[in-house]
Design brief:
alpha/beta, 7-stranded mixed sheet, 8 helices, 7 strands, 38% helix, 24% strand, globular
Length: 206
């Protein structure tokens, strides 16, 4: 492959069978994110790290009049996403710390199980804030390193996988959000199975 980005290389190879291979994982994470998303019928929503578009697909099915956009660095993943959607979505190739949209473009910015790949998290959070309208919200769901299985997976992947960056404990995630200047944060962790769990942060931006 021409790109040197290990994330792009890994997911380009995985794209074709990603939904099938990770069906349980996708179902759990999209379900829990949607439960916590302060959605309205005509909201403008950006999904950062949208992958194969599963969250966008479910949003489109439930909110046909919403304005949906997605960002991912992997063209092969976006190709799968386009096949699930109706063609009205604005899907672009790019990275979270340099979003190709104007300031104030969205009511909601969501990231579902992508944040552990971001190597410059504060810069990414500030970009998410930039593209939000005043009073908009950022919703982040990711693995929670407080759970044993996530902690073991974190250690293993940091040693063996060049595409992986890190997962966060609940207190680390809260500290990161505060370092980005966010004050109005609701952050909760929850189990998906007896082994592993997630956390979701909902940040209201003034």
């Amino acid at each position: 492959m021409s790109t040197a980005d290990p994330v792009v290389n890994e997911y380009a190879r995985a794209a074709e069978r990603y939904d099938e291979k990770w069906a349980f994982y996708l179902e759990a994470t999209t379900r829990e994110t949607l439960r916590r998303l302060p959605m309205t019928p005509t909201a403008r929503v950006l999904d950062i790290g949208c992958g194969t578009g599963e969250l966008l697909r479910r949003l489109r099915a439930k909110y046909p009049n919403a304005v949906l956009a997605g960002l991912d660095p992997v063209p092969e993943m976006l190709a799968v996403a386009k096949g699930k959607l109706n063609g009205n979505e604005d899907l672009r190739i790019g990275y979270a710390d340099s979003l190709p949209w104007r300031a104030g473009s969205f009511d909601l910015v969501v990231s579902c199980n992508m944040f552990h790949y971001i190597t410059h998290p504060v810069e990414a959070l500030l970009e998410m804030e930039r593209v939000l309208r005043p009073g908009g919200a950022i919703v982040l769901t990711d693995w929670c390193d407080d759970y044993v299985a996530c902690r073991v997976c974190n250690l293993y992947l940091r040693l063996t996988n060049r595409a992986f960056y890190k997962t966060y404990q609940q207190t680390e995630c809260l500290d990161l959000l505060h370092r980005a200047g966010f004050g109005n944060v609701k952050l909760g962790r929850y189990k998906i199975s007896w082994l592993w769990g997630l956390m979701t942060a909902v940040v209201t931006v003034n």
